[in-house]
Amino acid sequence: AQSVTQLDSQVPVFEEAPVELRCNYSSSVSVYLFWYVQYPNQGLQLLLKYLSGSTLVKGINGFEAEFNKSQTSFHLRKPSVHISDTAEYFCAVSVDYKYIFGTGTRLKVLA
Amino acid sequence: NAGVTQTPKFQVLKTGQSMTLQCAQDMNHEYMSWYRQDPGMGLRLIHYSVGAGITDQGEVPNGYNVSRSTTEDFPLRLLSAAPSQTSVYFCASSPVLGGLNEQFFGPGTRLTVL
Questions:
Q1: Do B107 and A43 touch (CB under 8 A)?
Q2: Alpha-carbon distance A102 to nearest alpha carbon in chain B (angstroms)
Q3: Has residue A32 got a pLDDT over 90?
């Protein structure tokens, strides 16, 4: 069965510092990978996705993620965070008609 | 386009009551799904539909019913509400079958069952 693991439930980081949010998945078949962001009291919106091709994927708001097939990881990075990046971030995989989400990582950017 | 809309935004029920959470999308998307979001558990798939007239169960379907009579609408019915169904419910849609496409999410319905 497919699963998604987000190792960190909360990540505090100072403004303008870099951040990495970790995501590992397990699947016996090829998957498509996504990162979504959820701002307080809102629905989820897409940050970026990996379907095929280049393993480094760039998304909105300066975020990027790297697909590593051998380590089954899809970590999200940003070189310099802003207060406005405070939100919850979800990694997801898509297999067949189903999307499987991780448990989320709360990013809190400190002034 | 309004995107994905959900009503109501908030709802309080008593144990045993039934209700329907409404979801509509105006993007002509084939794939629609319902999730519940609980602290520390992420989003869990309740039911999904790959087109009008076709629905299937997700990870946590017990206590919920769905139907898909039109492409636009995908209501979620709680048959007999229980406190364990207190959660935030999200509806989502995606353009076509398969996992290539992102999902578009509604703003959510916050449900409390007393």
A1: yes
A2: 6
A3: no
